[in-house]
TrEMBL record:
This is AB hydrolase-1 domain-containing protein. Pfam families: Abhydrolase_1. It comes from Amorphotheca resinae ATCC 22711. PANTHER family: 2-SUCCINYL-6-HYDROXY-2,4-CYCLOHEXADIENE-1-CARBOXYLATE SYNTHASE, PROLYL AMINOPEPTIDASE. InterPro entries: AB_hydrolase_1, AB_hydrolase_fold, Serine_prot/Carboxylest_S33. Residues 17-142 form the AB hydrolase-1 domain.
Length: 389
């Protein structure tokens, strides 16, 4: 679940590459973001009590998003000749999940579809998704500590400092806890992500060595790397994107607590000697209940997030029968070392979708569309233009 609006067209990384291929472009802020009825604690409160807010939020998944897209397509192309009424769609990450929902429900509106890092784990439960993605998160932790071995001790020292202070007040009014610090690993799956986290850890270490406290500029940088206050939709609905007919019940937390590397999720006290036997592992793209305790905006949404986590009657997002008969060309860039969309599960999905061509690489990460735009777009258009028969 992105929960993020689109960048203005002039600031988007793909605009020039797509225009150069002769396309017209329309960027859509998915419902609940940007110019499309943005969700915040205050706007959500207008819906009424917690149950009314939860019912409203249930309408912000991919099935509703693609209904919006199809309604917009029909309106925009009402006066177009028949051969121009279909459009091409492009989805990155959760946008790719939406593409597969679109192919399931409204294939008649599509000429072709492009996906980067977004072959959704169709038919898999939230538990199965996290059982897979935690493994990649552990790999990225090993890569981090291999690149920055000095951070093994530094992260432990920072954790002890934060714990000794009972948490560090953040400029926004939130609190940085040890568990909060370990959420920085969500950046590990991006190009340059290991460096991003190391730079923040180094700043904190340097502050402590010079002043015996962590300075406001550093805390602002850490907070900016962690906050969901401006993308609350992501936090509240993230696990729901994997749900069809079952509740997530905070799957990331439940699965994480079964793993030795993430025992910090249990809150079980450990001796200093036991803790130092191994590095503290950072979490990845996981949402946990405790995140709604230490953030000014998310605190207001903790109760409704719990209702969403326990909701069971989620409708189906994908039609496997339709996807198996899909006639719309689908071009997907898939990353072997994707920390957020598991490669093995993505390949299972690719086998379900007829007319799916992939560019597969182990030389790029999940955000390659931003970090290596020209290369990815070249590969996608090559899939479109080249024939293998």
């Amino acid at each position: 679940m992105s929960g993020c609006p689109c960048a203005p067209p002039q600031d988007s990384y793909i605009t020039n590459a797509v225009l150069d291929k002769g396309y017209q472009m329309l960027y859509l802020d998915q419902r609940g973001t940007g110019l499309s009825t943005p969700i915040s604690a205050a706007t959500l409160a207008l819906q009424g009590d917690i149950n009314r807010q939860a019912d409203y939020l249930k309408l912000f998944r991919a099935d509703s998003i693609v209904k919006d897209c199809e309604a917009i397509r029909k309106t925009l192309t009402e006066d177009y000749p028949t051969e121009l009424k279909k459009w091409s769609i492009f989805g990155q990450s959760f946008g790719g999940f939406c593409v597969l929902t679109y192919l399931s429900k409204f294939p008649q509106g599509l000429r072709e579809a492009f996906i980067t890092g977004g072959l959704a784990p169709i038919g898999r439960s939230a538990d199965q998704v996290y059982q897979a993605t935690y493994q990649k998160v552990m790999e990225r932790n090993k890569a981090y500590y291999s690149k920055y071995p000095e951070d093994v001790d530094t992260v432990h020292s920072l954790a002890l400092h934060i714990k000794s202070k009972g948490g560090l007040p953040l400029p926004s009014g939130g609190v940085l806890t040890v568990r909060g610090l370990l959420l920085l690993g969500r950046h590990f799956g991006f190009h340059g992500g290991l460096d991003t986290v190391h730079n923040l850890i180094l700043r904190m270490k340097t502050d402590l060595s010079q002043f015996q406290f962590i300075t406001r500029p550093t805390l602002i940088a850490v907070e900016n790397a962690l906050t969901f206050d401006d993308i609350v939709l992501y936090a509240v609905l993230h696990e729901a994107i994997y749900c069809e007919g079952a509740a997530s019940n905070w799957a990331a937390e439940r699965v994480g607590k079964t793993l030795r590397e993430f025992q910090w999720l249990t809150g079980t006290p450990q001796s200093a000697a036991a803790v130092r036997e191994q590095p503290l592992y950072f979490a990845g793209e996981m949402i946990y209940p405790f995140m709604f305790d230490n953030s000014p905006e998310l605190e207001k949404l903790g109760a409704v997030a719990d209702v969403i986590a326990k909701y069971t009657d989620w409708p189906k997002l994908y039609d496997e029968w339709q996807l198996a008969r899909n006639e719309v060309p689908l071009y997907a860039a898939t990353f072997v070392d994707d920390m957020y969309v598991d490669f093995g599960l993505a390949q299972d999905t690719a086998k379900l979708v007829k007319n799916c061509k992939q560019y597969i690489t182990n030389g790029m990460y999940h955000n390659a569309i931003r970090a290596k735009t020209d290369e990815i777009m070249e590969k996608l258009f090559a899939l479109r233009d080249d024939s293998i028969d």
